[in-house]
TrEMBL record:
Biased composition (Gly residues): 337-351
InterPro entries, alphabetized: TPM_dom (IPR007621)
Gene3D superfamilies: 3.10.310.50
Protein name: TPM domain-containing protein
Transmembrane annotation, as ranges: 189-206
Residue segments, region Disordered: 321-351
Domain (TPM) ranges: 31-156
Keywords: Membrane, Signal, Transmembrane, Transmembrane helix
Organism: Thalassovita autumnalis
Signal peptide: 1-19
Length: 351
C-alpha cells in the first residue's frame, strides 16, 4: 500500500513537471505571432530584418507573442517561462550562445527580452532600456505592432554592434546595415504636415457637395433642406435607428411648392454596423471570437455572432481564417535554430 502511494505521488509530480515544461512549437525561426498582434505587412518587414541580422552577423533573434502563459500551464513569472522557451527551441549558435528572444504575453501584460548565455549579464541594462523607453510606452497605448517593431529594431542595433564615434558624433554602421534615408527619417513629419491639410480640404468639399442646392424634379423649383431636429418625423423606424447608431445620416429635401421630398443617405465613416440580412438596414452589430488561430502551415477558424439592433434578428456563422503567408526571406536560410541556450540573462517589463 505504501509503495502504491509512493508510485502515485511520483506520477503526479511527473505530470506536474510535464505541464510546467509545456511550450508552443515554433512555426518560423524569426516571427511566431501566436497572439496575432502583427499584420502581414509588419510581419514581413520584421522577418526580413531578422533574417538580415542572421545572414550578416550570424545572430539569431526571434520574436514571439502569446496570449497568456497560462495557456501553456505556466503560473509563475515570465523570466522562468522565457528561459525555458528559449532553451526548448535552442535559440542562437550552440557554441557562441549569442541568440536573443523578444517574448510578449499580451494578456498577462508582461514582456521579456531573453539573451543567450554567451552574453552573461552584459545586456541586462541595455535590454531594460529598450523595454522601458521604447516598447512599454507603445504597449501602454495598445500600439503593440509599433512597440514590437521599434523594440526589435533597437535590439537588432544592440546585438549587431552599432557604435557611436564620440569625436565626430557620426554613427558607424556595421556591414549589412542600411541606415534610413532622408525621406524615411522625416516621413512622419511630412505626413503630419500634409495629412491635416488634405483632410480639411476633403471635409469642406464633401460638406459643399452635400449642402449644394437641390432642384425639384417635379416643378423645377429650388428645394429646402429640412432641419436635422425635424427630419426624423419624415423617416421610417429603420432609418431613425440608423441615425441613432450613427451608421447612416439622412438629409431630407422638400419642395415648398409641390411638397415633393427627396431623402438622401450618407454612411457613417467610422461606423462598425453592417446591413442586416432581414430588414436590410445598417443596424447589424457583429462580434468575432477566434476559435483556432491561423499559422503559416494551417488555416484558423473564428465564430462571428450577429445581432440586428432594429429588427432583433440574431445568428452566428463560422469563418475560415486564411493561413499566414511566409515571406521568401524566411526560407533563405535554415528553418531551425542553432541549438543555443540561455542562463536567464536579459530584462523584463510590464504595462
Amino acid at each position: 500500500m505504501r509503495f502504491l502511494a509512493y508510485a502515485l505521488l511520483c506520477l503526479l509530480l511527473s505530470l506536474s513537471a510535464t505541464r510546467a515544461q509545456q511550450y508552443p512549437a515554433y512555426n518560423d525561426i524569426y516571427v511566431n505571432d501566436f497572439a496575432e498582434l502583427l499584420d502581414l505587412g509588419h510581419e514581413s518587414i520584421l522577418r526580413r530584418n531578422l533574417a538580415r541580422l542572421r545572414d550578416d552577423h550570424g545572430i539569431e533573434l526571434t520574436v514571439v507573442t502569446i496570449g497568456s502563459m497560462l495557456d501553456y500551464g505556466h503560473e509563475g513569472n515570465i523570466e522562468v517561462f522565457a528561459t525555458g522557451l528559449f532553451n526548448s527551441w535552442g535559440v542562437g549558435d550552440a557554441t557562441r550562445n549569442d541568440g536573443a528572444m523578444l517574448l510578449v504575453a499580451v494578456e498577462d501584460r508582461v514582456l521579456r527580452i531573453e539573451v543567450g548565455a554567451g552574453y552573461g549579464d552584459s545586456k541586462d541594462v541595455s535590454t531594460k532600456r529598450i523595454i522601458d523607453r521604447i516598447i512599454v510606452p507603445q504597449f501602454s497605448q495598445d500600439n503593440y505592432a509599433n512597440g514590437i517593431m521599434e523594440g526589435a529594431d533597437a535590439l537588432i542595433v544592440e546585438l549587431s554592434g552599432v557604435e557611436e564615434e564620440v569625436s565626430s558624433g557620426e554613427v558607424i554602421y556595421p556591414p549589412g546595415y542600411e541606415p534610413p534615408g532622408f525621406f524615411e527619417r522625416n516621413a512622419k513629419w511630412f505626413y503630419a504636415a500634409t495629412t491635416p491639410v488634405a483632410g480639411i480640404g476633403a471635409f469642406f468639399f464633401m460638406r459643399w457637395r452635400r449642402r449644394r442646392p437641390r432642384i425639384c424634379p417635379v416643378d423645377g423649383q429650388r428645394m429646402q433642406l429640412v432641419p436635422e431636429d425635424l427630419d426624423d418625423a419624415l423617416l421610417n423606424d429603420g432609418q431613425v435607428k440608423e441615425e441613432q447608431l450613427k451608421s447612416v445620416d439622412y438629409d431630407v429635401w422638400e419642395c415648398g411648392q409641390c411638397g415633393h421630398r427627396t431623402i438622401e443617405a450618407y454612411r457613417g465613416w467610422f461606423s462598425g454596423y453592417g446591413a442586416c440580412r432581414t430588414c436590410k438596414y445598417r443596424t447589424l452589430e457583429s462580434e468575432s471570437t477566434v476559435l483556432e488561430h491561423a499559422t503559416t502551415s494551417s488555416t484558423g477558424r473564428r465564430r462571428v455572432d450577429y445581432e440586428c439592433q432594429h429588427c432583433g434578428d440574431t445568428w452566428s456563422a463560422t469563418e475560415i481564417i486564411p493561413r499566414k503567408e511566409r515571406s521568401s526571406s524566411s526560407s533563405s536560410s535554415s528553418s531551425s535554430f542553432g541549438g543555443g541556450s540561455s542562463s536567464g540573462g536579459g530584462s523584463s517589463g510590464s504595462w
